[in-house]
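Team,

Forwarding the record for the chain on the shared tracking sheet. I've put the sequence and predicted structure together so nobody has to dig through attachments.
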Amino acid sequence: MVDAETVRRIALSLPESSDGSTGTALRFFVRDKQFAWTYHERAHPKRPRQPRMDVLAVRCAADEKEGLLASDPGKFFTDDHYRGFPAVLVYLDCVDEQEILKLLTDAWRCQAPAGLLRKLGKKS
């Protein structure tokens, strides 16, 4: 199980990442491109979405989304708002630190510019 502070520590350890979080929601960027954020749930129709600090949205490659969702529905899910969008929703109380490290690193890679990936010796 990980919490918001663990997510923040790991996200900010990634190169050139920044924190755009507020008091009610996490938001992490690499060069102004968001790679992870707090899920906002629409609990009641026609009412504003509410942040859920126990669920993190993370970018993923479009071709990997269905695999993540199928791998463990107890950890990963989506909703109508995210259908067709390259991100999965993750229950933070169902993942450990190594899993969130991998998810955040992959999300960061999805959003990092090619020049930054090359500079760090990563395949773009």
